[in-house]
Specification:
mainly alpha
């Protein structure tokens, strides 16, 4: 992995560091965010090399679910719309939609 790809792991590492300072539940959630970040980087590299888009599609769908749950929890528990969750949800939906386009599938085939 190059230097730029490692920077994409920072959100997951940040979540993991919050878990280290807190409870075991926060640690597990941070570890899952780190795993999703690493899978996103690996799937992106595979797609850019023209090898396969399936991993990025699956991770994109998981991230859609994660950010949708975050958004619902923000609205239900706090009563406000979490702008970051909305932006990340839109980004995850964009990844899923883009990787399903015929030209992307042809490139990755």
């Amino acid at each position: 992995m190059g230097g730029r790809q490692v920077l994409l792991l920072l959100p997951g590492l940040s979540g993991l560091s919050y878990g280290l300072a807190g409870s075991i539940g926060a640690f597990v959630v941070g570890g899952l965010y780190l795993l999703l970040s690493a899978a996103t980087v690996y799937g992106s590299v595979q797609l850019f090399r023209g090898r396969d888009a399936r991993l990025l599609q699956v991770v994109g769908l998981v991230l859609v679910a994660v950010w949708l749950v975050n958004l619902v929890l923000a609205v239900v528990l706090v009563g406000t719309v979490d702008v970051l969750s909305v932006l990340l949800l839109v980004l995850a939906v964009g990844v899923v939609v883009t990787t399903r386009r015929p030209e992307v599938r042809a490139f990755a085939a």
